[in-house]
Amino acid sequence: MSTTAIIVEFLVVGSLAISTLIFLILTVLRVDSWIFLSSFKEFSSVIGIILTLLSYLFGALLNSLMFPTYLVIINFIKSTRRNKLLNFLTNLKIVKFFLEDGQFWLDNGQEEWDKIRFFIFENGSINVIERLKYTQSLLRLFKGVAIITPLFGISVSIWLLTCVNQPITALITICFCLILSLLSTIAASTQDKDYRREMAIAKEIIHEKLYLSKK
Questions:
Q1: Band of the pLDDT at 113, cuts 50, 70, 90?
Q2: How confident is the model at residue 104 (pLDDT cuts 50, 70, 90)?
Q3: Is the torsion defined by CA of 111, 113, 115, 121 positive or negative?
């Protein structure tokens, strides 16, 4: 179950990232229709496989780059505290969630949870471990979607405005992506609380079983 969740996580986030790049390329090349795709019909299967592999690769890369990105954002904001606009943005709940998570890592707060996780992986049952891995994968998925969706919306909106001349559709697209990003942030916040709560409970139960088994 956890392996499937990780694959889906990488494919979803990676697909959004590739789609963002594709629309930026279409904007630069001033492509205003999808008619050109008809010339690639014979290679549709190969292109599909290549895009799937690239989506997985991009998803894995974004997952690895998420933590360094947090640190860069935090350090940048700390160095520009006098900027009123940045102060306003950092006080928004949707931004605070990601920044506080990054600050948590920056302050080595994750170290204690790492110890708990490794303790559970060493002494817990397969079902407990799979459950925690699945919850953690969902958390990464929601955070990844929350980050990449606004960028996807911006790239599509730019293409719609500059190449297709559809401002209303562009506005609807960006609003939809922002709403999806907000919902993903809320879901990530809930999932993060559930993940930490489940780890704490699992550690306590496993610790009690180990203590009783030694008596």
A1: low
A2: very low
A3: negative
